[in-house]
Sequence to fold (225 residues):
Amino acid sequence: SQQGEEDPQALSIQEGENATMNCSYKTSINNLQWYRQNSGRGLVHLILIRSNEREKHSGRLRVTLDTSKKSSSLLITASRAADTASYFCATVPLGGFKTIFGAGTRLFVKA
Amino acid sequence: DAGVIQSPRHEVTEMGQEVTLRCKPISGHDYLFWYRQTMMRGLELLIYFNNNVPIDDSGMPEDRFSAKMPNASFSTLKIQPSEPRDSAVYFCASSLRARQETQYFGPGTRLLVL
Fold:
């Protein structure tokens, strides 16, 4: 089963609106990362949040991490059509070796 | 830096043929990863290398798959013989230092086995 599971599976919003995606995981982790994948392209790293951090910002991105609930959220503010992509969370279990990617959230931003 | 380079970008082959996918990681990166992405199974880690040495190949589906990293700037993933169920997008990624840090992905090779 997946270590990281995103929710929702798909999200459609209007340009200018905020988009929130959630990720839940099963075991303790060192850090959690969010990646974006445009159609037909490789994954691009967006942001990394460590287990001792609760919130992190990067431009229009805001990531939160709640280790007690084993969950994270990615907020994209003032979305643009160019934000249309799939978004994946990735975790490495504490003491583990492999980065495990969730199934992803497909975001569609309508112009 | 040009980023992670993969070739070919697309490959169409017939069942039973040998397929070789190539990857050039970012210079100076110590870790190299091979992933496979399908609609059904999502993104799966096949194998990763540290300093050219295979560390974990438990994700390699079966003996038909093999991977090598003869030097720090080149890796191959070979499928022999190929089967239609191997059709997927194969990504190579590299990272600097620790395995748990940011991975930089190549553009992928889209493989179709007929």
About this structure: Residues 6 and 23 of chain B are 5 Å apart (CA to CA).
